[in-house]
Amino acid sequence: MNAYLRGLRLERWPRSGAIFIGSAAFFFLYPDFFRIFRASSLVLRAGLSFLLTWFISTANYIINEMADAPYDIHHPTKRYRPLVRGEIKKLPFTFLGIFLTLLGLFFAFLAFPLPFFFSLLSLLAAGFIYNLKPVRTKDIPFLDSISESANNPIRFLIGWFAFSPSSLLPPLSLLISWWAFGNFLMIAKRLSEFRFLKDKAGDYRTSHKKYSKNSLMLGMTASALIFFLAYLFFAFAFKLQYFIYVSPFLFLYLFFIFRKTLKEKEVMEEPEKLLLQPKFALYTLLLVIIYLAFFFFNRAGHG
Asked: Domain-by-domain residue ranges, the chain?
């Protein structure tokens, strides 16, 4: 594959699909809006919102690729990224990021309401804050995972406002639970790096110089607790008993990731790569099917 295409990290396109969780949540809570949209309109808006999110996400990967090049050389696999190896030049790579950004924001402003546009702009801003100095939260212990996980609720908002009127906001409890789940995964990734990179961990990720195994495990536990508290608050507030019933399965899901992080015999790369493991993928699929059933059951109840 062309080095520039590899630098865009095209294999991470599923992350942009996280916006559909926000869209599904909107239609779950406001099922009457299904009648407003034709099937063709639903597909078109969903497809365009995904594409624009992918544009901005890819621009953020370009920022990350360039900002992290001096650090990636200390990572066992990221040292082979094309920019680190000198296979691509910074100037054309930068222009490619600018082009994708302008294209994404232009069509977002043209085709969607302002909350969608500002949510997409927030996704771009989060990339700048996380990667670039003078802020570069990536170098600050725990603030690094907190800010990186902000992409979760931001993508949720993008998917929500792809269909929602500007006046309808998602429940704060949902945004918090979705952020906390992402923070749990990001700390798990850092714990994996801390365990296996050992003395070189601080060279690859500056925040590792102030982390410890216990502090990272505590961070994962706190994130899981926040996730369940916000999730259960949402379930009780909207009287969704079947969401409460499935919470033990969610606990097992997080416990599996926690256990795997502590026993894995190599550095855990990106959390979504867990889905390449058959048992984990099957369990994830089971949870997706359960929530889809809840979605259609709820819609039928309002039909």
From this structure: 1-167, 171-303
70's tokens:
């001096």
Q: What is the pLDDT of residues 133-175, one digit of tens each?
A: 888 999 899 899 999 999 999 999 999 999 999 999 999 999 9
- What tokens were used for 169? 């906001």
Amino acid at 197: L
Query: 290 Cβ partners below 8 Å, 6+ apart?
Result: 246, 249
Round to whole Å and give the CA distance between 21 and 33: 16
Convert the pLDDT of each residue in 240-286 to its tens digit.
888 998 999 999 999 988 888 887 655 565 666 677 788 888 998 99
Q: Tell me: cis bond preceding 134? Omega within 30 of 0 counts.
A: yes
Q: Kindly provide the residue ranges of all beta strands, DSSP E only, lying in the chain, ordered along the sequence.
A: none
The answer to whether the CB of 115 falls within 8 A of the CB of 156 is: no
Domain spanning 1-167 has what CATH number?
1.10.357.140
